[in-house]
Structure formats: C-alpha cells, structure tokens
Amino acid sequence: MTISYGALAGLIAAVAFLILVLFTIPMLRRTAKVLKETSSTIETTNESLKKMTEDMDSLMSQTNDLLDKTNDLMTDVNGKMKTLDPVVKAAADLGESVSELNDSSKKIAKRFSSNHFSHAGLVSSIAAAAFARRRRRKGEN
What we know:
Residues 35-69 form a coiled coil. It contains two helices and no strands. It is an all-alpha fold.
C-alpha cells in the first residue's frame, strides 16, 4: 500500500486540524463558562442597580423634605432676628451711654480730686461748711 504525497499531505492536514480542534475545545468551554459567569454577574449587577436606584429615589425624597424644613426654619430664624435687631441696637446704645456716663464720672472725679481738694482738704471743707452753717443758725436764734 503506497500512499501518494497528496494523500499524505491531506492526512497530515487532517491530523493537524484534529489537534487544533482538540486544543480549541477546552478553550471554547472555558470561554463559554466565563461568558455564563459574566452574564450572571451582569444580571446581579442590574438587580443591585435597580435596588440602589429605588433607595436613591427614597433618599432624595427625604433629602428634599429635609431641605424644605431647613428653609422654613431659616425663614423663621430670619424673622426672629429682624424682631431682635432693635433690641440689640437699643442694648448697644445703652452700653454706649453707660460708657459715656462712666467716662464723664471719671473726668469729674479726677478734676474734683486733683484740682480742688485732697482727701484731708475735702474733709476739712465739709467740716468748715458744717460749722459755718451751725454758727449761722446760732446767730439766728
């Protein structure tokens, strides 16, 4: 039995194709398995995204409600601040008046103590005025 070169080449090509198919089959199986896992992962991801979207919608609704309440609170606080502004201004004006009165009192006390009387002079002046008043009253009697 003699095989021609063409038949031998065909046989070698068939064996090479068989080897190629044998090596390709496991790779195709692994690829199919990876595609199944990827499909499962995508399905799980889609379900998770749906739940997350629902949760985000709920969270956004609650956040909007909270912001509305915060705006109402800020409006109320601003109204109360407008009511308190005159009171604070009056207290500031009163503080300035008290400060000016204090400064004036200090100036008078300083002028009174340094220019006219010393402590002993003040006492003697008061005593002299009291004795003078007593003498006048005795003279009237």
